[in-house]
């Protein structure tokens, strides 16, 4: 698998997992009928754990976590090739976020205060670690890339706009949560759906970047 194919995969999998799980819930009559992006009738977690939806969600998101670890490893190598600097911190932050995705998915659909605590903090660190690694990647390209990334400027701007939207949504969610308005739950649900979408779109643009720079990677086995 070429790096660009991996990037496309980590973009597509969560889109299929989240929306597929919701539609399974609708088909089985256990999910709220609405447009989550506009009405906020359900969270992603609630949609994913209703009925048989959890099997699709777990079956896709568990492997996604491992693919994300590989993505951030390849991203750090790609950044090093373009900038001439090591970017191990980006790999570590992204990988930590991906590993907490496993924690979140593992406790999804379970009851109890401890399980809810693990589920909530798992998804928070997954979101935060992923977006932070995305932001640091853009910063590295902008700060150290020079002429090597001149052809990537437009794609970098697109990625930066996605990250900016994610941070704006996070700030709005915090404001809604502390305001005590009666529609706070619906508002936070809407934000969650859009946040996950824009976070995933980053990887689609990363795939275009890797394709445009003809980024390749292979494991070489040397015989003694």
What's the number of extended β-strand segments?
0
The share of residues in extended strands comes to under 5%
What is the count of DSSP helices, taking H or I runs of 4+ residues? 8
| Structural Rg | 18 Å
Sheet with most strands: none
General form = globular
Order of helices and strands: HHHHHHHH
Q: What is the mean pLDDT?
A: 92
Keywords: Membrane, Transmembrane, Transmembrane helix
Transmembrane segments: 7-27, 55-77, 89-109, 121-141, 162-184, 190-210
Protein name: DUF998 domain-containing protein
Concise summary:
With 224 residues, the protein is mostly helical. The chain is built from eight helices and no strands.
Q: What is the element layout, followed by pairings?
A:
Layout: H1 3-28, H2 36-39, H3 44-49, H4 53-83, H5 88-107, H6 113-144, H7 153-179, H8 184-212
Organism: Aliidiomarina haloalkalitolerans
Keywords: Membrane, Transmembrane, Transmembrane helix
Transmembrane segments: 7-27, 55-77, 89-109, 121-141, 162-184, 190-210
Describe this structure in words.
The two termini are 26 Å apart. The protein has one domain (3-212). It is an all-alpha fold and 224 residues long. Helix content is 78%, strand content 0%. Helix 4 packs antiparallel against helix 5 and helix 4 (53-83) packs parallel to helix 6. It is globular and about 50 Å long. The chain contains 8 helices and no strands.
């Amino acid at each position: 698998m070429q790096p660009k194919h991996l990037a496309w995969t980590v973009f597509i999998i969560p889109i299929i997992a989240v929306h597929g799980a919701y539609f399974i819930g609708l088909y089985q009559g256990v999910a709220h009928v609405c447009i989550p992006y506009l009405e906020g009738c359900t969270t992603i977690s609630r949609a994913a754990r209703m009925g048989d939806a959890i099997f699709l969600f777990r079956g896709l998101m568990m492997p996604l976590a491992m693919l994300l670890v590989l993505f951030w490893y390849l991203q750090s190598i790609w950044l090093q090739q373009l900038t001439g600097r090591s970017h191990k911190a980006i790999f570590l932050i992204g990988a930590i976020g991906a590993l907490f995705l496993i924690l979140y998915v593992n406790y999804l659909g379970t009851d109890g205060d401890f399980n809810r605590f693990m589920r909530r903090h798992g998804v928070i660190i997954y979101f935060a670690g992923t977006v932070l690694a995305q932001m640091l990647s853009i910063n590295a390209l902008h700060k150290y890339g020079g002429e090597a990334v001149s052809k990537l400027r437009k794609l970098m701007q697109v990625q930066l706009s996605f990250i900016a939207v994610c941070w704006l949504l996070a700030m709005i969610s915090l404001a809604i949560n502390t305001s005590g308005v009666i529609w706070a739950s619906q508002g936070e649900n809407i934000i969650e759906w859009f946040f996950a979408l824009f976070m995933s779109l980053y990887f689609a643009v990363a795939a275009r970047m890797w394709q445009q720079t003809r980024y390749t990677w292979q494991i070489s086995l040397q015989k003694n």
